[in-house]
Amino acid sequence: MIWSHLHSMLLCELWDLDNSRVAQHIYFSSLPWPLNKILYWKQQLNNWNYLGLKKGNIEQVNEKMERKATEAYASLSTFLGDKKFFLSARPSSLDAVFLSHALFIMKAPLENSHLKEELNRHSNLVSYVENLQREFLDAQGSAPLAKSIYKRPKRVPAPLRHRPPVQRTEKVKNAKWRSKWFLAAQAASVILALYAWGISAIEIVEEDDEDSFDAD
């Protein structure tokens, strides 16, 4: 239930255009431009295909997922009650899955989040997440890290040796110049290929949507 309803709704919100900056920062902030943009478009297209989102059914699918997510939170709140964990006196995989989901919903700066609004309606779920965070995550984070048993030997600096300056000939300079341009051309071709692939994939999806509209 958590995976099928809450996770699908989270994918819809995270890869929505309103939260494009959040998704790009989480997944692609370490990549250079335009590679980060191309991979973001590719992943967004994959997630929309996974959720079955198209131009003509976005509102209907979104309303259906919101309704199922609301029912899932209500069921989990009723099932939890005032217990410390969902299933027994010790944490289980269900606790781990829901805790990771709820912490992301509560901490991530999502815009117009239906999940965040519905989660805050259930005070026992919010208290449950906050208590587990203090008991397990904050306590573990404040504990000192275990020191490694293996210690690297200290390096003894080697005595400096005087090396005569190397005189570069015109042939060596030209070879290095050509190699730099070759690497730059290869990098540019890879980026252009990825960009063209991403644009073509988006156009294919749009053509499929137009065909479906014509058929209707």
Automatic annotation (TrEMBL):
Protein name as it appears in the record: Metaxin glutathione S-transferase domain-containing protein
Lineage top rank: taxon: Eukaryota
Every Metaxin glutathione S-transferase domain range: 70-131
Native organism taxonomy: Eukaryota, Viridiplantae, Streptophyta, Embryophyta, Tracheophyta
Pfam families: GST_C_6
A biological process term (GO) from this entry: protein targeting to mitochondrion
One of the record's GO cellular component terms: mitochondrial outer membrane
